Amino acid sequence: MAADAESATDQRIVEHLAARLRRRQVVGSQQTALETVLVLRQVVSKARFSNIDQLVDVIRSVGRKLVEAQPKEYTVGNTVRKVLHHIREEYHTASQGTVVPSISKPTFSIAKFVSQGQPRKQTASQRTSHETRGILRENDPDDPDAFARALKPVFMEAIQDVLDELETVYDNVSKNAKDHIHSDEIILTIGKSSTVEAFLKAAASHRKYTVIVADTAPSYSGREMAQSLSSSGISTVLVPDSSVYALMSRINKVVLGAHAILANGGMFAITGSLLAATAARAHSTPVVVCSGQFKLTPQWNLYHEYGALDFADPSGVLGFEEGDLVDKVDVVNPYYDYVRPEMIDAYITNDGDHPPSSVYRLIKEAYDDEDYAL
Is 93 helix (H, G, I), strand (E, B) or coil? Predict the structure, then answer.
């Protein structure tokens, strides 16, 4: 009875988050990823399993429900894949009784020169190998919970590592901002991105520069971004979207945020990003994207006309007060643009800087092949 009650509680927690995702009550990639990790942590802490396959099935089941609730929020699936990867890694380390070299870190990557591994994770793996060596009992008929008792603390620590990475993502992306932005530069950005905002504010403590923010109609999220940057003492200019191309000859660098980074090196980003990237390419202006690695998505764009096939309310573009015109036109208000990899010069992530051509390798290292399809 107690096990049934715990199962029902877990089910309610998952359904509650799924309902909030479906209604878009959880906004922002980082917040979505954080809530997904918290749900997975609670599910794993109460789960009963006799082998690793049973635990993987439980996590995948939760992941499928959350992804189906909001398929366009790619960070949900990415977070589930990341948790599965960490759990398998800890299991292999414990079952072999030796420290398995972490495959979550690139062997050949620019980031290797920036950050030499994660000492905390390595020491955790070493401790795990000594604590659990020789005591793993999978599918023990006399004590079905023996396997879970031995490894659940290790798995919870692995999930905590994912949570810690998400909580510090803005700081880690911003730590080298001064190396990318130089004094007296003019930077262009589009809309409101928390990652880009943290990046620009971090650079402002070392450099004096100007930011031009496109207001990003019809959401006008650029106005909020401009106000936030201006209140931090950054010289900020708010301009309409239509003037981006005209101003591009004066721009030194375009800094964009991302909704999802795809396996081919392209990305889904807020509407207007494609406009800015195209104008930048015409003027040979570098385009850099600030994003956490939790946005790496093992999917390829199907080259839809509209990025992610996700649409906002068309009344923001053409209201019903324009009655005669509304009946004669189809109004489309896409949520995201698809920006091709050749339009992007570099991704600035919480684990170093990477060109679009190396994104597929980062995805290969971050997730297991069998988890690409949950």
Answer: helix
142 CB burial (10 A radius; 0-12, 13-18, 19+): exposed
The whole-angstrom separation of Cα 266 and Cα 193 is: 18
Tokens 């930011």 label which residue? 211
User: Can you list the positions of beta strands (E) in 210-249?
Assistant: 210-214, 235-239
Question: What does the alpha-carbon distance between residue 330 and residue 5 come to, in Å, rounded to a whole number?
Answer: 51
pTM of the entire predicted model: 0.84
The pLDDT tens digits of the residues spanning 167-215 come to 999 999 999 999 999 999 999 999 999 999 999 999 999 999 999 999 9
Let me know if 347 is exposed, middle or buried by CB neighbors in 10 A (0-12, 13-18, 19+): buried
Question: Beta-carbon neighbour count of residue 183 at 10 Å?
Answer: 9
- In this structure, the strands spanning 352-354 and 253-257 are unpaired
Q: Which residue has the tokens 């006309």?
A: 305
Report the C-alpha gap between 288 and 346 in whole angstroms. 5
Candidates 162, 155, 122; CA nearest to 136 is 155
Question: Is residue 195 within 8 Å of residue 169, measured between CB atoms?
Answer: yes
Torsion of CA 150, 154, 159, 164, to 10 degrees: 150
- Nearest alpha carbon to residue 30 among 143, 167, 141: 167
